Amino acid sequence: MAPVARVARSGNPGYAIVACALLVTGCATPSATRVAAEQVAPVAKSAPPDAALAARLGALDCARVSDADLRDSLQRAPAPRLMLLDGRPAFVTMQAFGEFLVAMGYPEQRIRSPRDDSLSYGGFESDELAGTLAWYYEREGMMPVVIGHSRGGMIAVRTLYELDGAYASAIAVRDPATGEALARTTIVDPYTGRERPVVGLKVDYSSAIATGKLPRLLLGQWDMLSKLRRIPDTAVDFTGYTIPFDLIAGDVGGSDPYVAIGSAHVRNVLLPASASHIMLPKTVHLATNPVTRAWIDAYAPGNVAPVPPVAEGVDTTNIVHAADVWYGLKRNWCREAKGWARASRGEARE
């Protein structure tokens, strides 16, 4: 087995092994050999969609993706990998939220873990996640979506800092099926065919749900106290969800919003005070009831209809959070599908 790349991390110096430039010299080191062996063809050379699908994708308004758009267009195009990160303790899981998203129409195979087939991920550390995101981007041509609840939200934000180079100058690529750190810290960009480092990659859509500073303080995660609400440029679109007066998270009335350090587009969503920190991911009932499902399908930030009244057989618990995340996922999927269609025909992704 090739040696695993050691990278210089905060408080744990090492020596970065960076792969030789694949397209320049063809060096015979283990790193360069591994890059060449695992490389996939650029997306621009992959089979393009048929003309009818390409036309439908091109005509989509990503800010208004209807249920018909989902069935007729998006579900016939690739979808970004979705990483749902669990909180702590172990029973605070995003498994139920994954079930909701599958019921709403997100491809199940793009959510399930290749390691244990679950719909959510527990125990990820941020450098591992960053390397895993790079692996998926290289092979699937789409940056995965990262959504974390509680501790998982902290890992989502910390991963953005990993990609920004805050903790290490290089990050090893990770095989998601085994968790193995590969002997390289670069990938072949699926659109350009050129080698590039993992550090510097951007996550198109990410979010943190009910993630507060109090647990960071109690658990000794002090380095995240100053970073948790400040989103670096390695995020393109980021949404932070806060429950006012969430005692577990230590949030007081949503008075500590997420802010962009630079170019990231950051939204803050204040959830109803009645929301439960632990029960927030339990949303599958919203997808199976036609009343709540229709409300979610029609939801758009800034143009929100009144929540359906509670009636016999209608449970609206967690509907705002579920609808907002589903809206963001559809919009991101739409943008990525449009980019895939253009790139597969040799056109600029925009």
What does this structure look like?
There is one protein chain. This protein is an alpha/beta fold. The chain has one domain (30-344). Helices cover 31% and strands 11% of the residues. It has ten helices and nine strands. It has helices at residues 30-38, 51-59, 67-72, 95-104, 126-140, 151-163, 213-218, 284-288, 290-298, 319-344; strands at 82-85, 145-149, 186-188, 195-197, 203-209, 230-231, 235-242, 259-260, 265-270. The strands form three sheets. It has a five-stranded parallel β-sheet, sandwiched between helices. A two-stranded antiparallel sheet has the order 3-4. It has a two-stranded parallel sheet with strand order 6-8. α5 packs across α6 (151-163) and α9 packs across α10. The radius of gyration is 20 Å and the shape is globular. Residues 1-38 have low confidence and may be disordered.
SSE class: alpha/beta
Along the chain, the helix and strand elements come as HHHEHHEHEEEHEEEEHHH
Helix content: 25-40%
Largest sheet, spatial ordering of strands: 1-2-5-7-9
Rg result: 20 Å
What general outline do the C-alpha atoms trace? globular
Distance between the termini: 40 Å
The residue-averaged pLDDT reads: 84
Instruction: Give the oligomer, counting copies of the same chain as homo and different chains as hetero.
Output: single chain
Total DSSP E strands: 9
Note the beta-strand portion: 5-15%
Largest sheet: 5 strands, parallel
- Could you say how many structural domains there are in total? 1
The unreliable regions are: 1-38
